[in-house]
Structure formats: structure tokens, C-alpha cells
Amino acid sequence: TDDALQLRKSYRGNVSGHDVPLPIGSFEDLVSRFKLDRRLLNNLIDNHFTEPTPIQCEAIPLALHERDILACAPTGSGKTLAFIIPLLQQILTNEHREGLQGLIVSPTKELASQIFAECSKLSHKILLAKKRPLTVALLSKSLSAKLRNKVVSDKKYDIIITTPLRLIDIVKQEALDLSNVKHLIFDEADKLLDKTFVEQADSILSSCSNPQLRRSMFSATIPSGIESMAQSIMHDPVRVIIGHKEA
Ligand code: ADP
Ligand code: MG
Fold it and tell me: Per the database record, which ranges form the Helicase ATP-binding domain (predicted)?
């Protein structure tokens, strides 16, 4: 416990909320504390991710304790893996479940494809029950068209990464079912926050009807608009800030 608190102090982590779990000091800690899937650990090692970054130390245990998270850490500090690692682990521990479980909303197509690339590295060669590959997709124009025309089934995907407008569009057309989604992640939430985003977020949230839905937001800054929106849509959230909170 002392070590963990010392670690938190070393990167000036500011964590607030009820019953906050201790940070991890290494990816191996995830094996002992959360039975991290070996294949996931191997994919981390194969990609030379040897030590967790501060935001990963804090956010991964929070997500694995099924907490709603408002996270703020500088650009380049590894926020993507901070939400991808627990998401993949949660899918692996419920491998019999079918239907879309993870939904990641990103402000731009370019950022969405970066998240897709990182997620693909970590889910590489992982099979679920009945030898079904863990399937991650970027909601591109062509995938949207295939879903609309029922060329592919939306049941096939475990994780979808998308921009807000493309998502809202496909949901309106009833071509993507979000009722199973357990993990909803808004990345770069500060950039998502323009006038229309609050409405977009409401629309997305109302389609994610699973009562066990867990929500998180990651960004480099927490403008006051984000803070108040997060407080209104989240349940008993934990706020994690690494470094300075900027407005
Ligand atoms: P952010 O979203 O906070 O701006 P990214 O998630 O894009 O940052 O990560 C920035 C870079 O750091 C990426 O190239 C990523 O692969 C790398 N990275 C992330 N986590 C680790 C880690 N634990 N060890 C080494 N490199 C990492
Ligand atoms: Mg990022």
C-alpha cells in the first residue's frame, strides 16, 4: 500500500472518488490482482510495452473494478492503452457473450484509426469461445454500408471505434444494436465538446440501454463543460488527473 501511494505521488497523480483502488506498479500486477489474460500480457510484451505509464497505472485498475472514469493526462501519455487493456480483459473474461460490448467514440477519423491500430495490436491472434476471433472494427463508410445492407451482422463485432456522427447515423437507421454495450468510452472528450456534442452524447447514451453500462471519458484537459457533463451522466465516477489540470 505504501509503495502504491508512493508511486502515485511520484507522478503527481490526483485521484478522487469513493473507494479508489490502488494503482498498479507493473503489468505483472494485473496478473496477480486481476488474472490478466496471458495472451494479452504476451501481446503487450511483443509490442514492447514493458512498463505501464502513470495514467495506465491508475485507470486500468479502476476500469477492472467497473468504475465510471473521468481521466485527464497529457497528450502522448498512453491514454489509449489505459482504456484498451481493461476493455480487452473484460471481453476475455466474458468470452461467451455475443454482440457489441465495447464502443469507443473519438472526435476524428484519424484518431479513431490510431485507436483501431493500437487495439488491433493487443487483440492480435486472440480467439474467444468456439474459436471466434476477438473482432474489432472501425466504423468506416464501407462498414456502415455493409451493416445497412445486412451484408455483415452487427453481432460479429466485440468492439467498434467510431466518430459520433457516423455512429448516430447508423443507429438511427437501426443497423447497429447498442443494447449490449457494457463499456462506452469517449476519447479526447475535450475536443468532442463543441455545442453539439452534449446532444450527440445524449443520443449515444440513450441508445446504450444496458443497465450495466460503464462510462469513461479520457482527455488531455478537463474544461468545466466536460466536468459538469461527466458528473451528470456518470455514476459515482472517479476522477484521475495526471500532472496539471488545464482548462
Ligand atoms: P495519448 O492518447 O495519451 O495522447 P497514446 O495512447 O496515443 O497517448 O500513446 C502515445 C504513444 O505511447 C503511442 O505510440 C503508444 O504506443 C505509446 N505507449 C503507450 N503506452 C505505452 C507503454 N506502457 N510503454 C511504452 N509505450 C507506450
Ligand atoms: Mg489519445
Answer: 60-240
Pairing of strands 102-105, 136-138: unpaired
Least Cα distance to 64 among 38, 33, 95, 41 occurs for 33
Share the mean pLDDT of the chain: 94
Answer yes or no: is pLDDT of 245 > 60: no
Q: pLDDT tens digit string along 154-198?
A: 999 999 999 999 999 999 999 999 999 999 999 998 887 666 778
Starting at the earlier edge strand, list the strands of the sheet with 13-16.
13-16, 238-242, 69-72, 214-219, 183-187, 102-105, 159-162, 136-138
Closest CA to 72 of 192, 188, 195: 188
Q: Which of 36, 80, 122 to mutate to test the pocket of ligand 1 (most atoms within 8 A of CB)?
A: 80
Summarize the confidence of residues 45-64 as an average pLDDT.
98
Distance 129 CA to ligand 2 centre (A): 31
Which residues lie with the beta carbon below 6 Å from any ligand 1 atom? 49, 51-53, 56, 73, 75-81
Q: In this structure, which amino acid lies at residue 64?
A: L
Distance in angstroms between the alpha carbons of the first and the last residue of the chain? 32
In sequence order, the 6+-apart residues with CB closer than 8 A to the CB of 226 are: 70, 189, 190, 193, 217, 219
